[in-house]
Design brief:
alpha+beta; Arc Repressor Mutant, subunit A; 2 domains; five-stranded antiparallel sheet; four-stranded antiparallel sheet; 12 helices; about 45% helix; globular; sequence-specific DNA binding; transcription; AraC-like DNA-binding protein
Length: about 290
Amino acid sequence: MSINNLNLSLLHAGKVDLDHHWDFDNVISPFSRLYLITHGQAQVFHSGQTFDLKPGYLYLIPSYTYSRYKCESTFTQYYLSILEESDDQGSIFDHHEFLYEVPAHPNDALILDRILELNDDRMLLNDDPKAYDNVPTMLAYKARNDRMNPGSFLETRGLMTALLSRFIKGKKVTRSVSLKNQEKINNIIRYIRQNLHRELTVAELADEAHLNADYFSRVFFEIVKTRPVKFIQEKRIERAQLLLSTTTYSISEIAAKVGLDNISYFTRLFKKQLGRTPGAYRQSKWQNDI
């Protein structure tokens, strides 16, 4: 995804005092979380790292990232839940390197205060992710963007973009491969996302990249760090998660939309990756009302 095409919308925003009840595991959301800590300490685990939340720092948790939260005493944080309206080129997190902890700028608290002023109806009523990370709640909060004054909507988006800019490092580049091959693989990733609704083979992808199939597989692995077939499977299930969370399509319709017409295979693959069936996943997302 090009930075020029970045499209952010706000779901939740607030400032809250938290304590030892802020202790949650297996949090995986279709939106990103951004925190500014102003008092106390807590911990967040994600992306294979443990982050000690401390005052004066901003923290980022990308969408679809497993995370774990823990607080043993008390702390105070600003929080934003940000939905990225991604296209077939994928998420900004697919194409750019990000830091997840950065020192806050002196005016960041003022920026967050302004976001809260513009969006005073976005505060979460319950800190448990199970209470708000579900389809009815997400759709309700997202619908509030449609009712916003256009100027307030654009200002909110600009302020969120400014905060997100604190974390970005640059485009993902693998130094050991040529820039030409890097561009070819980026194009193939885009091609995969645009064609998840149908069967895809390594031979087809290699042909699209104008590379020998074996050489293509080696280059793809070197850049993406996973095999093409596994990557395709992961992206199919990631797309299925989004559809299960944000639409009322039947499970068989979703399976077809992600290129897995065999519902039994789709269910097995989904459960293998996420540890539960598509039906159980959807139920967990829909079980809590607003």
